[in-house]
Amino acid sequence: MSPEREVLPPGVFSKGFHRLKHGRFDITVLSDGYITLPSDILMPEASVDERRGFLGRLGGDAVSAPLQTNIPLIRHGNEVILVDTGAGANFQPSDGRLAGNLAASGVDPTSVTMVVFTHAHPDHSGGTTRPDGSLLFPNAHYYVNEAEWSFWTKPDYEAAMPKPLHEFARGAQRDLFAVKDRLILVKPGDEIVTGMNVVSTRGHTPGHISLELAGDGNLLIAGDVIPNNIVSFENPKWHFGFDTEPDIALENRAALLHKAATEKLRVLGYHWTYPGVGYVERNGTAYRFAEG
Ligand SMILES: [Zn+2]
Question: pTM of the full predicted structure?
């Protein structure tokens, strides 16, 4: 359980590799760097004063804040499993650090046997290919929720989706079509490896999934269902501007916070303060995050 931290080169927002054991899973949380989001996306309902307060606590400026990107590398038996691939060169200049951090932690990308996508937004699947289109993880099989696949890969996406989603759709198609020969479609309830189950947490995207890992108390790899460990915990009824199905997202966020607090689940959040692993504690009608 004890975290081991090592120093990474400067320029990487989150320094270190956080390691934890959970049941039969050996997990290293790697950083893909960070992304910067404006308060209009992060907390559209917040007042001017609330925005100022949260942006300050998140280490941001007057209009935006950095959010980290935590990618678990999971060893289970002979499998080496990545959950999401980060952004590669396809989102913001401050992310796309996964490949470097894998190398720094001594992991050869060819040794990765499975990649599971929580969803196909560019900060989660953009690192699937190199700029030349070749796969960064050529020996992996790629696990994608069938609802996520069918949402993004519609040939008529421009007619089927509102304009703000078109760029996300082009990115998702780039990443999903790149793995179509190594694709395994899954659905909620499926078991990826023994003790690792697919859980539907739709709303952020229509096929967003989380992974529940069996152990001494379960560990939930949440992806973006709870976007931030400060804003979303303290204001579970606020929307997140990147949610495709805003009200379903809110419902599932509230349900997961409730379940995690009640069952004392350990949760790993993609954009939470590195390494983003801990517990959900009730705090009046809201919640607070307890690292651990
Ligand atoms: Zn994200």
Answer: 0.93
